[in-house]
Amino acid sequence: MNEAHGEYTALLLDEGHSGDAAVLDRLRRDPAVVFVDRLDHQRDALRSLVPVPDPGVLDEAPVWAYYSWRRTVVRLLGPTSFRLLRLDRNRNKITAQEQERLRGVTVGIVGLSVGHAVALALTLEGACGGLRLADFDTLELSNLNRVPGTVLDLGVNKAVVAARHIAEIDPYVTVTLWKDGVDVESVADFLDGTDVVIDECDSLDVKVSLRREARRRGLPVLMATSDRGLLDVERFDAEPDRPVFHGVIGDVDVESLAGLGSRDKIPLVLQILDAGQLSATMAASLVEVDETISTWPQLGGEVVLGGAEVAAAVRRIGLGQPLASGRCRMDLDEHLDALADPPLPQDLPDGSVNRAAALPQDAVDTVVNAAARAPSGGNVQPWTIAADDAGLTISLAPEHTTAMDVGYRGSCVAVGAALHNARIAASSAGLLGAVTVHAGDAGLPVATMTFGSGNDRELSDRYEHMLDRTTNRRLGVPRPLDDSQAGLLAEAAAREGARLCLVTDRDDIAAIGAILAESDRIRFLTPTLHREMIGELRWPPRDSVDTGIDVRALELDSAELSTLALLRRPEVMERLGAQDAGRALGKSTADRIASSSAVAVIAIPGTASRDYVRGGEATESVWIHAQALGLAVQPISPVFLYGVESAELEQLSPRYAAPLERLREELFDVVGAKAGEALAMVLRLSHAPGPSVRSERRADRVRRRIS
To answer: Which intervals hold domain THIF-type NAD/FAD binding fold (predicted)?
Structure first.
């Protein structure tokens, strides 16, 4: 074993230490030594990181690193700040916490041809904190087809070449060299203090001995053989009785393997690598060993790929992530043969609708159609609407619920909105009669209206506005509402038995934006809620848009639509959730709230189903009035809206139940909700251009009975 020294490690010098200062002074007087100082650039980059590092990191004392083989001294950030800045671009493919955990891993690499690529990949990624490198050979010109050295390294020990490369990337990585390589007798010493073993040597006796000793110690062994991107994994840490080389060569005698020439190794190599899986070019080359070529070939690109494969496997082991024993092939040629055109993006069709052409002529059908135009969470339309000449019934359809529809409270709001629309249309048609809301099957509310001959002018005047009512998610202009507008909206809620909490103060609106943004983040990161949210989206012309939310209605630009393709993926959300990250997931909601003139919250006097039906009637009334005043309206349902009890929030999102309860309390406080009240809906009011599309409705949720 050879101890680390200035032949391959940087000498780190602290100018504040008298002994180090003397060394630096001596080096400065040497005309052959070059000093490089770009510390200011490093510090500027450090200060620009997001989030900004702690003051203790920003103020960490720098060091001078002397590279004797280059006769160069470089000024660098101290170890903590250096590591933070150097590995910043790893985030969040490797999180800061994962990076710190990997820092405790020591990797031993035997064989520094392919092994150099492995060491390089591990160093670049910060996938370990210590490296033990073993190789007895020196770098030759014929090695430069695959070893990332230079002609200046010819004749230098391969382990030294690799160690110097590592030191020039990160002088804080601990590197120990075995310049005499590893043999059968020294395998045990080499493995002392090693967590993961990488075998890239050519000696079969060492390969077998390395595995037997690793198995005895419970250490995993990895090997990359560049042909067809083969990665071999033996998890002796998890399977202490696993046979070496997966049992493919049996229980061989190590002594018989020593000193075998290239050609003599071929039969065993073919057993280890599985002759039938070799590439045609490699198989043909093996036939020519000692005839027209001196040994088996290796390509630089394939060696680099092997380094990447091993580094990925080491990361999994170091982080305790799943990695089975076995082997896989990442065959570049196979993948290149499978090149295919990517699917072309489809332009979303124009979403304009001719409303007049869609209106029915029959008076009863007019009422039914109006009820069916009501809004509902995710446009699920959780109702069954039936009518005959005598009257109309709106029943809650529990099969169309979602997880956020706790206790069917959101569905009750939708039923109330449908009832309000039916009352408006019936009044306009001269059919208005008695209205009741009662408990039907399983205690779920049923709204009925008996057709009569009534006409309420207040309701009739809203008919055209009711037909025009739609969701508008466009960014708005936060032009303030006047007192007259605020009064009309408050009256619209009060007439339906609810109370309007109208928030117009800019600071309060910003606070609501932060609350709703965090709620959206939790919705994205909660698997059930994320799955249902993404399931609501419809992508025309591929999807029918008679239920769910047409993506065109989200009013996203092309960049946001592209981002949505990432946010749809559950494994991406799982990754963010594991880090409790994703603060940007609620940014769109926060931006839209910030562009609002006001936030209107419908408060109801209790939490019974009838209260939520009343809240739905009030919501629709306020919505119709707001749109008649020229305001754009967007409903927003925070995750906690219908979770009244703590246990219900726990069921909604076990991980985030406590934050949801806090957010609910904060919203109640900002909007001024009173004790005993519940919230039926949150509406964003703004001044904005008209929406791109309006939601369609399903015909099969409506039934016309024959009297």
So the answer is: 88-228
